[in-house]
Every structure is written in structure tokens, then in C-alpha cells.
Amino acid sequence: MAEIVLCRIDSRLIHGQVMTKWVNQSKANRIVVVSDSLAADEFMLEIYLMSAPAGVKVECLSRADAVKNWNEDQFGSGRVLLLLPDLASMKEVYDGGIKVTDIQVGGLGGAPNRKVVFQNITLDDEDVEKLISLQEAGVKIIFQTIPEDVPQDFHTILKKYNN
């Protein structure tokens, strides 16, 4: 069975040096992107696949297919970096059976009613509810955009959000 060595939430998905650094640090040999919109857009999917680090297998699945494949042990073997664009996707796949123990929030872009909590990471009330639910289920949540950053725990981020 595949081992999820890093579960990262980043709205940018696969992007340049940052992704290369995370792949190297986690020693992942596969990236599984879980995104309904990307899985349905062949043109954009090709662009993302071309931007993946050399020698790393990349697969893109819808939320439903990711849950189905995981539960049927179809992720194969190897060290997987699970990459999701948002917390709604994370919550859905977690509730569907992909029970990760740790989540790294690395990039959630800005929009109305969102609050900057750490570098380029913004949250809204719905995100906070999902994070609290995941934390209550026993998931360790950190915020870290690049490997060189000191990870911020969810408790610290929640204080920033509530101020």
C-alpha cells in the first residue's frame, strides 16, 4: 500500500522550486493531485504534469476517484505526496477514508472575507470549521509555505485568525 509522506494543501498545486523542495524533503516518488476541476480540464492538466519535478510520477484524480482508489488499495506502492487545492477537498477525502495523520497548509489565496494568517495563506470561517473538525479527529495541522519556514501550529494560526 502507498505511504502518504506529505499531505499538502496548496491552491497553486504543482509549482516550480517549492514543489521540488517538498518532493526532495519528503522523499516522495509520486504526487497525487486531488482536484475535481483539474481532473476535468485536459489542457490545464497537461500543463501541471509538465511542471512536475523530473523523475516523479504525477497522477490527478477527482475527489471521488481518490477516495475510491485509496479505499480499494489502488494508490499502488511508494511514497506519495498528496496535494489538494483547498480544505473542502481535504475534508471530503478525509471523511471518505483517506485518514492522514498530518496536514500541511502551504498556500490558500486571498478573496473577499478571507483573512491572512501566515504569509500567502488566508482562511475564512468555513476553512476554520474544517480545520477544527480535522484537528478534533486527531489530525496534526501545520502551516508552512516553504521548507525553510518554521512551521506554525494550528493553535497559533487560530489565535491570529480570531484577533
Number of domains: 1
Overall 3D form: globular
Number of strands: 9
Quote the average pLDDT. 93
Question: Distance between the terminal alpha carbons, to the nearest Å?
Answer: 43 Å
Using the coordinates above, name the CATH class.
Alpha Beta
Please compute the radius of gyration using only Cα atoms.
Answer: 15 Å
Class computed from helices, strands and strand pairing = alpha/beta
Question: What's the CATH topology name?
Answer: Fructose Permease
| Order of strands, widest sheet | 3-2-4-1-5-8-9
The CATH architecture can be named as 3-Layer(aba) Sandwich
Annotated CATH homologous superfamily? Phosphotransferase system, sorbose subfamily IIB component
Percentage of residues in DSSP E strands: 25-35%
Low-confidence spans: none
Task: Describe what you observe in this structure.
This protein has helices at 16-26, 36-39, 42-50, 63-71, 87-96, 125-136, 154-162; strands at residues 3-10, 30-34, 57-61, 79-84, 102-107, 115-118, 121-123, 140-143, 152-153. It has 163 residues and is of the alpha/beta class. It has one domain (3-162): Phosphotransferase system, sorbose subfamily IIB component (Fructose Permease, 3-Layer(aba) Sandwich). It has a seven-stranded mixed sheet with strand order 3-2-4-1-5-8-9, sandwiched between helices. A two-stranded antiparallel sheet has the order 6-7. Helix 4 packs parallel to helix 5 and helix 5 (87-96) packs parallel to helix 6 (125-136). The model has no long low-confidence stretch (mean pLDDT 93).
